[in-house]
């Protein structure tokens, strides 16, 4: 209830300057074309661009938005979308609490719940026309379904279907269920039937979408496909200068714009001739290996850092001309506390994941699934583009893991003290 009230108040009072911009503009185009023409296309509505199907973006979020557009028409769909995202964000908190309920003590679970309910990124993102809230809800939902009903193949299949749906909202999540299923099977935390059902269920919808995507790729260009987007993110993520030069170029810095041009040229070469593009990127890294070693060593922390790079900064993707995080004392105080805690929570969550990896025989399947998922997400963004906005869907899971590490440390300390007094 706290999470729901915090999000509903925020979306009802925030004012976003130009909410349909950047990625949001692309999702709006897809949703409008779906609602009006039944075609999944990035062509700008009302323009002279040909209405050609493509697969550059993932279909899940535009499908949700187009459904609201068809049901309500006009502009009534937009405030309802924000309210729906507030509800989904609050439901994510509840599901994450349920995910930790079987292995966390009540007081520690309550502390994690308060953090999740009031975490600024998770609240602010509900006011944007972006996929993060839906992706986070579906991710936590399928993990909860897995640990609750996953002992049978039916439960594994259901969890897999939801995991596949999450993958259609964010392609980064497509292999997540496969990774979790394999690890649970190898560690003996799930039976073979449940693991196989999870794997197969997670592939049903994405495979159908991939078949459609292959047809699009044969008719279109690589830049309009999901594989083209993945290769673009691979190159962008290999440049330490990408985020700073992107922002500086917007404000007219010629040096930064030159860096952006070099990045885009490298992407274009990779799209035109993949082998030559990869050789170019590797040659750049080999020219200064220490620089890129440092860069890739910092990318996991960058993912879970505070300020959004490709956007306005702080917890804002697009500028907010009115926001509770600037005018409301409660929101400002909670944001200041979260900002101070953020680095510590990252290292605690990392300690939890590696602790589970080292002592997997002694921990419950729920904790193994949570650690596997967090390590998978961090690993994917370590390879591709890494920035704090991309971790927002998974902040609730990070907070559960961080508080879980604190609980384990507290229990260990108490046990040691008891041993010393005997």
Automatic annotation (TrEMBL):
Keyword Cell membrane belongs to the record: yes
Transmembrane segment boundaries: 76-99, 108-128, 134-150, 157-186, 192-211, 336-357, 363-384
Membrane-protein topology: Multi-pass membrane protein
Subcellular location, record wording: Cell membrane
InterPro entries: LipidA_mod_glycosyltrf_83
Domain of life per record: Bacteria
Keywords: Cell membrane, Glycosyltransferase, Membrane, Transferase, Transmembrane, Transmembrane helix
Name of the protein: Dolichyl-phosphate-mannose-protein mannosyltransferase
């Amino acid at each position: 209830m706290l999470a729901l009230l915090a999000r509903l108040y925020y979306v009802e009072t925030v004012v976003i300057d130009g909410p349909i911009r950047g990625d949001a503009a692309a999702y709006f185009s897809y949703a409008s074309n779906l609602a009006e023409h039944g075609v999944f296309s990035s062509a700008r509505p009302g323009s002279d661009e040909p209405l050609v199907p493509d697969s550059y973006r993932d279909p899940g979020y535009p499908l949700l938005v187009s459904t609201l557009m068809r049901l309500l028409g006009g502009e009534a769909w937009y405030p309802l979308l924000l309210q729906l995202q507030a509800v989904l964000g609050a439901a994510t908190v509840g599901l994450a609490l349920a995910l930790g309920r079987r292995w966390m003590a009540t007081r520690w679970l309550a502390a994690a719940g308060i953090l999740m309910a009031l975490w600024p990124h998770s609240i602010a993102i509900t006011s944007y026309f972006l996929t993060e809230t839906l992706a986070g809800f579906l991710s936590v939902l399928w993990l909860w379904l897995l640990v609750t009903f996953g002992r049978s193949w039916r439960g594994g299949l259901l969890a897999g279907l939801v995991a596949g749906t999450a993958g259609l909202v964010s392609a980064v999540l497509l292999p997540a269920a496969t990774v979790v299923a394999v690890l649970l099977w190898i560690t003996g935390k799930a039976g073979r039937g449940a693991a196989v059902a999870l794997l197969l269920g997670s592939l049903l919808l994405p495979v159908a979408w991939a078949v459609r995507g292959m047809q699009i790729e044969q008719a279109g260009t690589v830049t309009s496909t999901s594989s083209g987007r993945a290769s673009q993110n691979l190159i962008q993520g290999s440049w330490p200068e990408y985020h700073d030069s992107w922002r500086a170029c917007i404000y007219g810095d010629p040096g930064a714009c030159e860096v952006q041009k070099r990045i885009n040229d490298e992407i274009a070469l990779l799209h035109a001739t993949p082998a030559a593009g990869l050789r170019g990127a590797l040659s750049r890294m080999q020219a200064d290996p220490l620089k890129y070693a440092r860069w890739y060593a910092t990318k996991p922390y960058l993912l879970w850092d505070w300020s959004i790079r490709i956007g306005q900064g702080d917890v804002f993707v697009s500028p907010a001309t009115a926001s509770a995080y600037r005018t409301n004392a409660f929101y400002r105080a909670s944001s200041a506390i979260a900002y101070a805690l953020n680095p510590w929570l990252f290292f605690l969550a990392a300690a939890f994941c590696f602790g589970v990896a080292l002592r997997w025989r002694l921990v419950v399947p729920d904790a193994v699934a949570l650690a596997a998922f967090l390590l998978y997400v961090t690993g994917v963004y370590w390879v591709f583009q890494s920035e704090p906005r991309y971790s927002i869907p998974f902040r609730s899971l990070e907070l559960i893991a961080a508080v879980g590490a604190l609980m384990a440390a507290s229990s260990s300390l108490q046990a040691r003290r008891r041993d010393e007094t005997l």
